[in-house]
Amino acid sequence: MESAVIPAFVCGIGMLYAPPKKRAAPPPADKGISAVTGARLPSSFRRMAGFAMGLFAVQTFWGFTMATLPLYLRDLAGSNTLTGILLSTTGIAGIVFPIASGAVSDRISTRWGRRKPVIAAGWTLACCALLAMTAVRSLPAVLGLLVFAYAGFFIALGPYFALLADTFPPEERSAATGVMFLVGGTGILSYLLFAARFYESSPLWPFFWTVGGIVLANSVLFFVIRERAAAVALPRPGGLFGDVLNQRTVIRFYAGMLFWWTGLWMVSTFFIIAYREVFGVSIARAVAAFLVFNVSFVISALPVGLLGIRYGLKKITACGLGLLALSLALTPFIGGYGASLPFLVVAGASYSAVLAVSYPFFLRLLPAGNTAGFVGLYMACQNGTLLVGPALGGLV
Q1: CA–CA gap between residue 381 and residue 367 (Å, rounded)
Q2: CATH of domain 2-16+41-226+241-391
Q3: Relative to the CA of 173, which of 29, 31, 216, 366 has its CA 20 to 30 Å away?
Q4: How is the chain split among helix, strand and coil, in percent rounded to 5?
Q5: Count of CB atoms within 10 A of residue 30's CB?
Q6: What's the pTM?
Q7: 37-51, 121-135, 358-372: which range is least confident on average?
Q8: Nearest residue to 368 (alpha-carbon basis) of 252, 247, 255
């Protein structure tokens, strides 16, 4: 299965290096001034770390999705193939809701800001659905609640990532993204250390941990990041999709994402199950291997973000994609469990480049205004591949 990701990653890199359309250089930004709100925003580590707590919630949810949910669904469904199909249905929410919530947050103005009310509404829906899943064991009911949980998650996701562009000026976004994944990445690490490993002895514990982590992390985010009232984005002829069709470089970036995220979902969704079957280890040791991957990812996030500033965002993104595909493809052919761990370290560091560097690179491609709408499409490309990746992974 891991070797199947190479063609997808090669196509993704090719899309990054397609000849770009000439674009006018953006005006220089006044350091510490938000291009959206005009407010002076001191970019201290405290502010970046406070913003990163929103990603702590996101990574906690992904930890649950990658380490616990496949096991939970397979216990109910009885097969990897059906589990993959069930997980793929969540991709429908990943296509629709980030775009819709992004467009809404671009066009509202409240006393709490544009982004935070939508983020709060999304996470409330997700947490209620996760808590309800602890009380039912019927597969159709669980599938319905799963759709609600992912709908809430994706409603919150687009406006959260758009909040980065509102909060930090362009020249600081790569560093801010590095801090975001460094601090926020501890969400998935804490989940793997304190929740996922105890699924066999206490199946409900991961659900309660996930909800608690989401609530606490977003409380910190809302306390530290104060949005100013901003001008509501005006509707344009042709709407969001009309804007996108005029941005060929952005379209190529979206196409590249479709390829590489399909490959990533094929591997990540069945990582724990595949490690158990390939190396014949327990759930705890498979989770430990996934933990090695994610520790490498979190530790590498800030250094990789700074490398992006030094050597170019596009180059570091392409290098990360290439190394990630190669290391994942070689892992199953290593002689044993212990020998595979160094390859996971390389894969985790490469994954940092894919996430922490590609996103500020994407933001540089965007025209001014309606940021959350474009970010919603970014999330749709990333998470809409959940329709395909897990199903292909289950078959392979």
Answers
A1: 19
A2: 1.20.1250.20
A3: 216
A4: 80, 0, 20
A5: 11
A6: 0.75
A7: 37-51
A8: 247
